[in-house]
Structures are given as C-alpha cells and as structure tokens.
Amino acid sequence: MKRLILSPIALILWLAGAVVSSPAADRNGRNPMEASLVTLEITAKNYDYFQPWAKPTRTVRKHALVVGDRELVTTAQNLADRTLVRVQKGGRGRWLNAEVKWLDYHANVAVLTVSDDGFWSGLKAVEFADKVPKRDDYEVIRWRDGNLEIRRAEFSKFTVGDGSLSFSPRIHLELNTEINGLGWAEPVLVDGKVVGLTVAKGGNVCTVTPAPFIRRVTEAQKAGRFPGLGYFDFVWQQGENPATIEFLKVPGEPRGAVVIDIPKSPAPNYALKKRDVIVEIDGFAVDTEGDYDDPDYGHLMVEGIATRRHFAGDKIPMKVARDGQILDVDYVLPKADYSVDLLPMFTFDAEPEYLVAGGLVFQPLTQPFLRGWGDDWRRRAPFRLVYYNSLAPSVETPALVVMSQVLPDPINVGYQEFRNLAVDKINGQTVRRLADVKKALGEPKDGVHLVEFFRGDGLQRLLVDATSMAAATERVLGRYGIPAPEVIAARP
C-alpha cells in the first residue's frame, strides 16, 4: 500500500477545509460561480434604542446570486432601514446602485435588481438543487479580497428552528466548518448546484437556508401567490409519558403530540382544543417526541411542516385523538406577524418611537429595546421587562410603554435615577401606546402630571409640574441635542 505524504502547506490547507474540487472551470479557467455570485454593500440606519433620537449608520457587505432576468436573490438580513444598496460583480471594480424589488423578513428572502444594463453583461443565473443531499463535500463560496474563495464544509444535520428574523420555524441545514465570518448569504454548493444560503455561524456550526425553500418563496411571490409564512399558534408537548396518552384515550399505539394551550382569542371554528393529541399532520404520522419522518430531510420536529410546503392561510389536514376517537380536522395556518407578540420581535423600516416630556423619556417596550442589553438580554435586561416578553397581547393590553430614562432638569429633581419602568396610567388615563402618553399629557389635573407605573416596580408614581412642562422640555431638547420632542408612528 502506498503511503501518502503531505507537505506542511498542503497539510494546513487540508486541515482548514480547503477544497480542491469545484464546479468545472470554463474555457478561460474561471469558476462558473464568478459569473453568478456578486457582492452587496448595504448602508443602513443603526438605531440606538437607548438614544432613539440618534441615527448612526452602518455599512456591511454580503453576497447575492443571479437567479433570473435582471434579478438577484439574497437573504433579507441587514436590508432593514437601508439608505443605500450597491452591487459589485467579479469581486472587485466598479460599484453600481441596486434596488430591492421585494423582500420578506419572516422568510428572510430578498430579490434585488440593477437598472444599469452593462452590469448584467457576462452574468449567468445559478441553478438551484431540487433536493439537499447529505454529503461531506459541501462547498461554501464567497468573494474575499477580490478572489473567489472555495472552502469545504461537512454535513451535520437537518433541524427545525426559528428564522433569523422570525418566530416562524423552518427547516435548516447545519454544517460543520471552521471557516470564519460566515452568515452573509454565502452560497453552499454540491456538484455545482446551489443547495442553500448561509444565515448564521456559531462556533463550528453554520446554519443554511435550503435552496428549495428559497425557490418556493421567490416563485410564489413572482406569481403573486405569496401571502406570507405561517406558523403553528398552539403550544404542544411531547407525548412520551404513556400514562398521559392512556389518560387522554389515544386509540392504538402510543403516539402524538399533546396540545396544552391554544390562543386566548382563537379564530372562528378553530380546529384544535386543549388536550387534543395530534397523531398526524399533513399526512405525516407524529410520534411521541413530536417528530415526523420527512421524505427529504429525515426525522424532524413537526413545527417544520408549517413552512415545508405551505404558506399562511393554507388548510393543513390533521388527525387528532379527542375523547377516545380519531377525528379529521383542518387547521388554518395563521400569518406570521410581529404584532402577535406583546413585545414585537422587530420593528423594521421605521425609526424608533419616543416622546420626551420635561426630561421624562417614554418609549414603546419592544424586543429591539431589550436587545440593547446585548445578545444575553434575557438575563441582563431588567427582569420585569423581560417577564412581559412572555405574555400575550390582549384587548386591554395590546402593547406597553416604558419610561426608559429621566434626563436631568430642575423639573424632575429627585427622579433622575429611575428608569425602565412600565407605565400604567398618566393623569388617570390608561397608557398602552405613545399616542396615549401624548393625549394624557394634554390633560393635566390641578396643574400636575401624575404618572403611575405597574405594581412591582420600585417607583409607583411620579408627580411633575404641568405648568412648566413645555419650557422644561425645550431646555432638555437643547441641552441634550435632541432634534424633536417626539416620534410617534401613525396608526389606523
């Protein structure tokens, strides 16, 4: 048997995952992806929710693929609040302005175009794979320092998880790789076909959105049949405890996922009830772990069925065990919308709302505000504010407002140290949105503004002089360089 001896340089490249195989070069020795992969440069507002009146910008670079007649596809990440998008082909040279034709943040897919005819010369659409195989020779391709870099990644698993910009779950491909800096829509290839785009990288695990999902979304949108992504709005638990399955009278072998909660205000003719045991979804049997056997991806959590071949509004047939019988029901997929949460997950393409009154700063309580405490905000942000994130909105409480800080001024002496308090009422009027704050401040009682906070916070109420509020607000705006006393979104 021959012994293979690698030089030190070759050994380093092999260990780092460098790829020697790649799509066949053209007659000029170029990789075909050079004519399909372009670089995007995105300049966008980078709002600071602790100083919502500030409007710094950031610039990032990512990738996009030529997919059709004058169209590029990429992920929607970093396209929110954009002010300028430019595109470059060939990894170097001239930058041209691009425009976003369409995007969907929940799907994390965007389609762009370039009006300059010369840009499209020499470019060629990529081919998306119909299926994503389990392989150990994936290729991750990106432009780096003007050169096309091709690196190897290995299959880890298929999994179901929330989208990078959404709570709507979908199937992901996870790859093992030591390549740094991924997650910028780098294409992943097998045998020259694109099997997905990268969306995140943590440690040695790279998360990839499969190409069949991207193609299905873009084709539906182009045909005018994309209503948005759906999700399962019920809460379920595994049916692993045989005593539970027996108590709920599931006929036959133990199986299924147990419905333990449904929306507080379910749609008319809502299909499910608490204590239903879901034994089949969309023709797929559900086991006691809440998994199904996907013909393309193997055993996965049932949440993935919501976006596997469906969009919002679709009826998904289910079989449920209820009162000892197996019933057929049609579950209608609700649309993924950030407003379904008490604290919206994102507030894209809109500057942060705020209202400054006598140094008191009022803001909507949202997840972007909480993320100001960093990636570990669930642990580092004020406990009570994080607690509200676990609650569902209601008719009485569709949203929340916080007094985020107090900018020192003679009118608010003694209150400067208080911050991040959820507001309940102002001048006796219930406050749930900034418009409520503005209205209530216009109706003081006996020359005083009374601000009341929810029970449990350190400060229960606050009193400030209403007669000098306007002058104090002007002083605060000038002293702290705040351009306007308020930014309040118009609502129907």
CATH first level of the largest domain: Alpha Beta
What assembly state would you assign to the polypeptide chains in this entry?
single chain
Please give the radius of gyration in angstroms. Answer: 27 Å
What's the end-to-end separation, in Å?
A: 78 Å
Shape: flat
Strand content: 35-45%
- By CATH, the architecture of the largest domain is named Alpha-Beta Barrel
Helical amount: 10-25%
Q: How many domains would you count in the coordinates?
A: 4
Helix count, DSSP H or I runs of 4 or more residues: 9
Characterize the largest beta sheet: strand count, sense, and whether it forms a barrel: 8 strands, antiparallel
Q: What's the count of strands?
A: 29
Uncertain parts: 1-22
SS-derived structural category: mainly beta
Task: Kindly list the characteristics that best describe this protein.
492 residues; mainly beta; Thrombin, subunit H; Pdz3 Domain; 4 domains; 7-stranded antiparallel beta sheet; 9 helices; 29 strands; 13% helix
